[in-house]
Amino acid sequence: MGACLSCFFGNGGGNGLYEPLLQENEREAVADLLTYLENRAETNFFEGDPLRALSTLAFSDNVDLQRSAALAFAEITEKDVREVDRETMEPIMFLLQSHDVEVQRAASAAFGNLAVNPENKLLIVQMGGLEPLIRQMLSPNVEVQCNAVGCITNLATHDENKSRIAKSGALVPLTRLARSKDMRVQRNATGALLNMTHSDENRQQLVNAGAIPVLVSLLNSSDTDVQYYCTTALSNIAVDALNRKKLASNETRLVQSLIGLMDSTSLKVQCQAALALRNLASDEKYQLEIVRSRGLPPLLRLLQSSFLPLILSSVACIRNISIHPLNESPIIDAGFLSPLIQLLAYEENEEIQCHSISTLRNLAASSERNKRAIVDAGAVEKVRDLVLTVASNVQSEMTACVAVLALSDELKPRLLKMGICRVLIPLTNSASMEVQGNSAAALGNLSSKVQDYSPFVSVWDEPGGGLNGYLQRFLSSSDKTFQHIAVWTIVQFLEGKDQQLLENISSSRSIVVAINRLVEHGITSDACDEEEDSDDEEIVALARKTLTMLNKK
Fold first, then answer.
1. What are the two backbone dihedrals, phi and then psi, of residue 368, each rounded to the nearest 5 degrees?
2. 193, 344, 432, 469: which sits with the fewest CB atoms below 10 Å from its CB?
3. Rg of the chain's alpha carbons, rounded to an integer?
């Protein structure tokens, strides 16, 4: 930087060819600045005499002095980034509005450097920095474009700036520059567009500016940074249902491009491609399209990775894809069961555990064949061994999955033989209402139409108060759903006609008293809500049926 100033003014500082063109204060500022630059390690250029010297050159009518000031600011801010005040920003802002390309390039570089600091990001926008930066984006000079877009990219990382940038008119030139032949400009522009996709309002502004087709086309870029920015931006855009419809209507190659990017050499691109597909798979159309476009093999490969972000993104994606009934068998046939079951024990990340068990539950929803495949693969044993020690949100998903599997008359004896009741019963007393309800629902489903009730007899008193304690708690609960599950389960037990179980139920004074109370409540209830009245009637009917069967035993 010092060399640049010395070359311009001539070695020796006073005999330069253009010296007569300078004002006295300008000559003094040049001399002072050269001294400061020689001692730059000890000099703070953002205040006092050093700043005044730079400001004198910046506000000069001499374009060469402006160039020197702009270059000095660019170099200083590259090595020393700190929060600065308006007095420091004003000369750079003045230089930013110059018609000289060299001044523009260096001034926007200085602003871009300062915009790394959060407070500076706000100050630049507050002082009106967006307007000259937008003008510079329209410059035919690639260097000017690159620095201006880079500065806006930095400014757009601050949440308070994003709305102002979206409303400033910057999105259209940013979208245009995303197609630049210069890779630096393209990277900066796509990075800026990505930074604008973190809120609903800004995403809509971006879509209106025509960014979607540009971002989709750049998925095929040879540059991994551009791929990453565009994939992540599209992933964020796909969060909105309306945007997904636009993508479905207009971007027919999107899914295929994202599936291809799951085989990228860049881990971060692979990860974002899977996340983008996950967001798209919130819609039925995309759930089917991803499978039909051969998206399952790369997702399975990512699922078996040792890199946590890849595992999380792929399991979240397959979870959404598994929602569609037509995808259940293809996912199982593609070999997902064993990896998903292994991930149930992934203690480092609860979200991975939740997505894995939720996927298994989805896969079990529609088909006896699929339920059998899941049980054959060892899912129930894994749940049995883990469910009492995992987080409550994982417990909720695990017990819900068991409840679905327990709907199968063929599989109920196998589940009971595995000892699943011994973990479900303690969970009916969980601090989580969801876990309580799911566990009770699973027990209820298991209780219906089985030949051997000895697994229930063996857990009558233990563990955790046993089946007896669970039924008492639920019958006495103020939650009508819980009352209904308990009394319905007792009816299934009584209809099974297991003598020991009949004896246990009829001998439990607390259970009998609670059932009588349900009948009495129904007689005296004056519920005016139609739905609540219907629930009450069904509970009362089941309670009466229970008493009748107990009296006949």
1. -65, -40
2. 432
3. 35
CA 544, 548, 550 angle in degrees (round to 5)?
115
pLDDT tens track for 28-82: 999 989 888 888 888 899 999 999 999 999 999 999 999 999 999 999 999 888 9
As a whole number of angstroms, the distance between CA 489 and CA 134 comes to: 69
Per-residue pLDDT tens over the stretch 399-423: 999 999 999 999 999 999 999 999 9
Report the distance separating Cα 190 and Cα 306, nearest Å.
30
Tell me the torsion sign for CA atoms 19, 24, 29, 34: positive
CA distance 197 to 211: 11
Contacts of 181 (CB under 8 A, 6+ apart): none
DSSP state of 42: G
pLDDT at 110 over 70: yes
The pTM of this model reads: 0.87
* Burial of 39 per CB tally in 10 Å (0-12, 13-18, 19+): exposed
The Cβ of residue 2 has, within 10 Å, a number of other Cβ atoms equal to 15
How far, in Å, are 23, 27, 31 from residue 19 at the CA level? 9, 8, 12
Coil, helix or strand at residue 290: helix
Backbone φ, ψ for residue 336 (5° rounding): -85, -20
Tell me the two tokens of residue 33.
Answer: 């600045």
Query: Of 443, 475, 446, 469, whose CA–CA distance to 540 is shortest?
Result: 475
Rounded CA separation 338/47 (Å) = 65
DSSP label of 178: T
Q: Does residue 525 surpass a pLDDT of 60?
A: no
Ramachandran region, residue 10 (left: φ > 0; alpha: ψ -120 to 50; beta: rest): left
Return d(Cα 408, Cα 278) in angstroms, integer.
30
Q: Is 54:69 a contact under the CB 8 Å cutoff?
A: yes
Give the CB-side neighbour count of residue 67, counting CA atoms within 13 A: 12
pLDDT at 1 over 60: no
Output the CA torsion sign for 87, 91, 97, 103. negative
**330: which 2 tokens?**
């293809």
Query: What residues have CB less than 8 Å from 113, skipping those under 6 apart?
Result: 74, 77, 78, 81
* Torsion, Cα of 468, 470, 473, 476 (10° steps): -70
CA pair distance 129, 415, nearest whole angstrom = 67
